[in-house]
């Protein structure tokens, strides 16, 4: 498949077409031209903000890193060394927010795929983190490097996926302390997209930065003002920042690479059960992380991250794509805009199978993310089983959902030609428009062409095998892998990446972080 596609009349995008290739939308980064939906009024939003500041000033955040404690202490925060608790006031938060950029770019190994993060720009990411994978052919199983590589090939092949998440599946057969090197190499040789690097400790973050610099043919120093990788820093809610996460955050910020501060707040487990309380706690934890990035390097790119949902109060299991999750996405977007920060959110689901539940929960969450003004939709393609499984069929379903969303967000043309008065006047009452010039000029690009949906009449669908969407999704990802074309890469860059991986594996084996 190709990421290049012809442009239709009046600039409308045609689906990508090649002989025997899957039909999909061309590569583009979508923009959301519509005003965000706001469900909290100014007084309510201020109440969340004020409560967040009380949490930070009166309760504080526990930090398992002496270096972070030192940074906050020098900045004037109240630091309890015995408990590791940091309490910060509104002035420190406001000063940090005054230096954060409202928008930044992210460039992978292919500058033509540069992403703008912020404003009304949107980017959709591959699922990240599951230990398991699933497809209809081999079933549910532990993830391997071969599975990982196939997911990267699919991310490269489907134009609706803009960025690679942090380990779409963790290759369980590889050593936990160095498998990130193999996944980084797969990202950079099987795709030309930017990616989220692992930030569990300084070493893994620096490996992502160093390897992206090699792939881009530039020194690491040059990426300080031209970032190429991003990471997610999860606060261990409630109010705990892990030492290794802190080290990863500081390494990324110091080198000018963006960080998405994302509290993992599940109502009823990691926060109180009320949405208002969850938003206040999430906001406090996010602002704490944002402040830390600016203490490390004023002006470092940082995102407001949100991952608030609820648990099933009968079992304690995480639930996603719920009404509460959608409302949390909307309110988090309001908070991100209040602070002038790019917004990271997700469109997760809790289904254990690629079924109706997976579809409707993903759709609700996707609309919450879009209506909330999300800039980076993390886990947008392939997430299943509450994040425990990366699914090949779910990836295809998600690409269809994302393409539909991209078309919904495309502005409507209300020009005189598009209003079509002459066409309406030219067809008699009770007639049809199939043969009209207005129709013939536009029929190839007038409507969205689906990747997965089958719009055939029942008889034709039955005669063609009565294939369900799940069956078709299996055929589509198999076909995409068969058609996959790797990105061009200079042999010297590939050699340099291999040498770096070998050198770092030896160093890690010798005890280096």
Walk me through the structure.
- This protein is of the alpha/beta class.
- It has helices at residues 42-59, 66-74, 90-97, 145-157, 179-190, 202-216, 243-254, 275-296, 323-339, 356-371, 392-408, 416-419, 421-426, 437-440, 458-463, 469-483, 491-509; strands spanning 61-63, 78-80, 85-87, 103-106, 115-118, 123-126, 132-135, 139-142, 195-196, 229-235, 240-241, 259-267, 302-305, 307-311, 318-319, 343-346, 376-381, 383-384, 389-391.
- The protein has a domain at 98-408: Alpha-Beta Barrel (TIM Barrel), CATH 3.20.20.480.
- It is 42% helix and 15% strand.
- The strands form four sheets. Strands 6, 9, 10, 12, 13, 14, 15, 16 and 17 form a nine-stranded mixed β-sheet that branches. It has a four-stranded mixed β-sheet with strand order 2-3-1-11. Strands 8-7-19-18 form a four-stranded mixed β-sheet.
- Strand 2 (78-80) and strand 3 form a beta hairpin.
């Amino acid at each position: 498949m190709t990421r290049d596609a012809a442009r239709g009349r009046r600039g409308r995008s045609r689906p990508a077409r090649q002989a025997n290739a899957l039909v999909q939308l061309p590569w583009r980064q979508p923009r959301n031209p519509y005003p965000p939906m706001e469900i909290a009024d100014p007084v309510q939003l201020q109440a969340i903000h004020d409560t967040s500041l009380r949490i930070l000033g009166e309760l504080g955040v526990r930090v398992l890193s002496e270096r972070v404690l030192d940074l906050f202490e020098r900045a004037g925060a109240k630091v309890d060394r015995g408990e590791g608790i940091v309490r910060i006031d509104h002035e420190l938060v406001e000063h940090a927010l005054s230096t954060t950029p409202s928008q930044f770019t992210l460039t992978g190994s292919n500058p033509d795929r540069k992403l703008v993060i912020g404003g009304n720009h949107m980017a959709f990411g591959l699922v990240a983190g599951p230990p398991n994978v699933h497809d209809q052919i081999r079933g549910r199983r532990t993830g391997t490097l071969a599975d990982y590589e196939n997911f990267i090939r699919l991310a490269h092949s489907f134009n609706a996926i803009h960025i690679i998440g942090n380990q779409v599946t963790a290759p369980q057969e590889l050593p936990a302390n160095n498998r990130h090197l193999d996944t980084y190499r797969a990202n950079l040789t099987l795709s030309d997209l930017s990616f989220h690097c692992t930030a569990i400790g300084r070493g893994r973050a620096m490996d992502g930065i160093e390897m992206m610099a090699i792939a881009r043919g530039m020194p690491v120093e040059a990426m300080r003002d031209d970032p190429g990788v991003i990471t997610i820093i999860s606060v261990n809610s409630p109010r705990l920042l892990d030492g290794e996460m802190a080290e990863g955050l500081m390494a990324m910020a110091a080198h000018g690479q963006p960080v998405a501060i994302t509290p993992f707040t599940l109502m009823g487990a990691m926060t109180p059960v009320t949405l208002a309380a969850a938003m206040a706690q999430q906001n406090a934890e996010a602002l704490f992380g944002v402040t830390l990035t600016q203490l490390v390097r004023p002006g470092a790119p940082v995102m407001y991250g949100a991952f608030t949902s609820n648990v099933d109060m009968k079992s304690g299991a995480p639930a996603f794509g719920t009404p509460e999750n959608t409302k949390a996405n909307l309110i988090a977007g309001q908070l991100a805009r209040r602070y002038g920060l790019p917004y990271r959110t997700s469109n997760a689901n809790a289904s254990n199978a690629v079924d109706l539940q997976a579809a409707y929960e993903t759709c609700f969450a996707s609309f919450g993310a879009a209506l909330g003004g999300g800039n980076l939709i993390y886990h947008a393609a392939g997430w299943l089983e509450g994040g425990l499984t990366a699914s090949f069929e779910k990836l295809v379903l998600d690409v269809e959902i994302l393409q539909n969303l991209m078309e919904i967000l495309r502005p409507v043309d209300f020009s005189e030609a598009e209003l079509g008065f002459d066409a309406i006047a030219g067809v008699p009452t009770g007639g049809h428009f199939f043969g009209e010039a207005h129709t013939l000029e536009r029929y190839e690009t007038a409507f969205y062409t689906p990747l997965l949906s089958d719009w055939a009449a029942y008889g034709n669908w039955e005669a063609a095998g009565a294939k369900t969407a799940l069956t078709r999704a299996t055929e589509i990802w198999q076909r995409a892998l068969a058609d996959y074309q790797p990105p061009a890469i200079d042999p010297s860059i590939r050699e340099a990446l291999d040498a770096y991986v070998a050198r770092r594996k030896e160093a890690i084996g010798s005890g280096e972080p």
